[in-house]
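Note to self: the last two entries modelled the partners one at a time, which told us nothing about the interface. This time every component goes in together.
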Amino acid sequence: MQGAIGVGMLGLGIVGSGVAQALLTKADSIARRVGRPVVLQRALVRTPDKPRALAPALLTTNPAAVLDDPAIEVVVEVLGGEQPAHQYILAAIERGKHVVTANKEVMAKYGPEILESAAARGVDVAFEASVGGGIPVIGAFRLDLLANDLQEVTAIINGTTNYILTKMAREGVDYETALAEAQALGYAEADPRNDVDGIDAAYKLTILATLAFHARMRPADVYAEGIARLAAADFRYARELGYAIKLLAIGRATERGLELRVHPAFLPADALLANVDGVYNAVSVEGDLVGRVLFYGRGAGAGPTSSAVVADVIDIAQRLHAGRLGGEARAASPLTRLLPPLDEARRVLPMQDVWTRYYLRLIAADRPGVIAQITHVLGEHEISLASVIQKEDVVVDAASDLRHAEIVLMTHRAHEAAMQRAVALIAELPTVARIGSLIRVEG
Amino acid sequence: MQGAIGVGMLGLGIVGSGVAQALLTKADSIARRVGRPVVLQRALVRTPDKPRALAPALLTTNPAAVLDDPAIEVVVEVLGGEQPAHQYILAAIERGKHVVTANKEVMAKYGPEILESAAARGVDVAFEASVGGGIPVIGAFRLDLLANDLQEVTAIINGTTNYILTKMAREGVDYETALAEAQALGYAEADPRNDVDGIDAAYKLTILATLAFHARMRPADVYAEGIARLAAADFRYARELGYAIKLLAIGRATERGLELRVHPAFLPADALLANVDGVYNAVSVEGDLVGRVLFYGRGAGAGPTSSAVVADVIDIAQRLHAGRLGGEARAASPLTRLLPPLDEARRVLPMQDVWTRYYLRLIAADRPGVIAQITHVLGEHEISLASVIQKEDVVVDAASDLRHAEIVLMTHRAHEAAMQRAVALIAELPTVARIGSLIRVEG
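The predicted structure of the combined assembly is written out below.
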C-alpha cells in the first residue's frame, strides 16, 4: 500500500472521540476501502490532561499544529459552535487542506462562501454530519436527487425536542417534566434554548434548503418557533383528533416564494413523520421525478455522527488516492458538485404570507354564544372552521372559582397574518379568558 | 460551456422514455449542474415506427449505432432482462464507455464481474436504479455507510407484492382478487411470477447484500418464497395479534454465516416497515456506528427510476467534465469505490439453519386434546409456544359437514429445520385436517 493519508482533528469531545475511535479501531477496513492507510496525526484539544484513549503525543492545544502540518491532508472539524470553528475551517482551506465538518451552525451561516473558497482553492469541504447525524441526507441532495426539481423538504431534525414531544405524547406529562428528564438523560443541555427554541433545527433547515432549492439561504431566513409553550392538553386533543405533534422543519417551493419555517405542528397520526419518535430524525423530500422519499435514523450521538464524518473522510481519501483531488484538477474541483450555481433570485416568503391550517385552543366562559363570537371573528378574517370541540368545567381562576370551558377549533387553510390578527382579537373578547395554544396543522 | 457529453440509450420502454424525457426537458438544469451539456445522441429501440416524443433520427434498431459511436461516452441500459442487456453492458465497457443501468437481474447475476471489468477498463458502472427506484440506497452502501460494519438489511423491495399485501390487509380480499386488481392497474404483469414468487426481490437482495457485506453473492444464495399461499385468514389473525404481513428481503450477518432470505413475514404493527404500504419500498439498515437507518420511497415507475438513472448520468458527466475519469486516471478508477475488496470467505447460511419465530395456522378436529397433540410434537422439536388462538366452526369438508376448528400458534425462536419437521409431523396427525399457513415472524 502507498503512503498514508494524514488526518488532523479539531476537537475531541463526544463526537470527536467517536470519530477518533472509529479511525483507530477500523483502520484496517478503512485502509482496504481507500487503498492506503488513513492515519490520525494529531488532535486539537482544550485540556490535554484529561484521560483519553488517544496517545498524549497525538494531542495538542495549538491549532497551528494541525492547520500547518503538511502531513495532514484532511482536517476534521468537530468543535461545534461558530468561533473559532469557522476561522479554523477557512484557515485549513487556505492551506490547501480538505475539510470534513459536523458543524451545522458554521455551515448554515457561511456554507455557500466556505464552499466557494474551497472550490477556488481546489479542495473539498464535506458536511454530511452537519444534518441528521448518520442519515445520508446531504449526499442525497448533493447527488442522488440532482435530477429532480424539489418542491418540499419536511423534517424532524432535532432529537432533543423530538424526545421531549414523544414523552409528552406518551406519558401525558407537561413540558417542564419532559425537559427535566431529557436533561437528566443527557438528551438536553443544561441551557436547552438552542434546541427547544428551534434554533438548531433552523440551522439544519438552512443547510437543507440551500442544497434542495439551490438558493443562498441564511438562518435569519427561517421562521423559528420552539416547543416550550406546548401544553399536556394539546397532546390530549391531538390524539383525540387523530394527530401527533412534532417540531417540523419545512422548506417548500411555492409560486409566491420559498417557505422556510420551524415550528410545532399537528401531523395526521398515520403519517410516517408522525411515527418518528424519541431521538430519531427523519427527512422527507418531494421531487418532480422521484415523488416522495424519506430518510430516517438517529440524528445525533457519537456513533451516528462518526458514521457520517468517517464516510466523508473515506470519500475524500479515496479521491486523494485516485489522484482526483488537488494539483492540476483544481480548476474543476469536486466542489462544483457540492454547490451547483445558486439561484440568487429565489426569495423567501415572509411567515405572515404563509397559508396553512390551524389548531386553536382557548379558555372561555362556559356561556351560550361564545363560540358564535369566536367564529364571527374568524369569519371576518376569511377563516373557516373544520371542527370544534368544547370541554366544560375547566377552572382557570382558582380564586374566583369561575367555571370556564376549553374550546378547541380546527380551521381550514388560512392566511397566517389573518389568523394572527383574528387570534389577537379573539383574545380580547370579554368572554375569552386566554388563548391556550395556536398550532399549525400540516400534512 | 465546453463540448457536450454524449449519452446513448439501450431501450426506450416505460423507464427509457422517462429517462429520455428527463434528459430532454431538463437539459438546461442538467447542463448547469454538470458544467457542460449532456446530449442524448441515440436510442436503441425494437420498433422504430411506434409514435414517440423522440425525433425519429435519434432512433436505431442497430445496437452498434449506440455501442460503436465515439460521440457516446455514457450508455444507459434500460432494456431489462438478462440478455441481450448483459452482453451490451460488457460491450459498452469494452469500448471504454461508462454505463448506467437499471438492470437488477444483470447486476444480481453478474454485478461483481461487471464492476471488475469496468475497473480494469477504467470506466464506471452505476446502478442506483437497480434497487428501490429513486430511493438512493445503492449510493448509501457505496459511500455513506462505508465506515460501518453492517449487521442487517431488511427491506420491502417489490412494489407489486406490497400493493397486493396492502390490499389484502385493508380490504380482507383473497390473494387472487388482489392480484387481479394489481394486474388491472398495471402494478402486476400478466405473468406475475417474477414478482409474486419473490424472484425480483431476491435479485435486489443479492445486490444489496453484496454491497452491504462485501461478499460475492448470487441470486441462488437467496432463499425465496412468494406470497401466493397467503390467505385472507392470515391477515385477520395478524391484525388480531398486532402484526402486519409483508414480503421481506432480509440479509443478516450472524456468527454462523449470512442469512439471505425473501419470504412473507409477520412484523409488529408499530414497526416502521409494517407501515410501508402500497407500491412504496423501504430499506432498513443496521450498522455498528450509525445504528438503524431507513430509506423510503417509490420503488418503481418511470419517474422514480429516471430520477436515479439521470442522477447517475449527472454524476458520471460531472466527473468526466472534471477530467476525473478515463485517460491516465484509469489505474485508479472511481470503480474502486463501487466495490471494495470482496470477502470471498463469507458463506451463506442454508435456510434450514436459520432461527426465527413462526406463525402456524392449521385446521383440526374440534375435539379435546388436539392442541395437546400439536404442542407435544412441537415440544419434541424444542419449539415452545408464545400464544395459541382457537376459533371454532370452520367447516373444511362441506360434503361430510364435519366441524373443524382453526388453530393459530405463535412460537418462540426455533430452528427452521426443526420447525419444518414438526409441521410435517403435525400435518400427519389424524386430528389435523390441513396446515393453513406457516409464516415467519420478524422484528
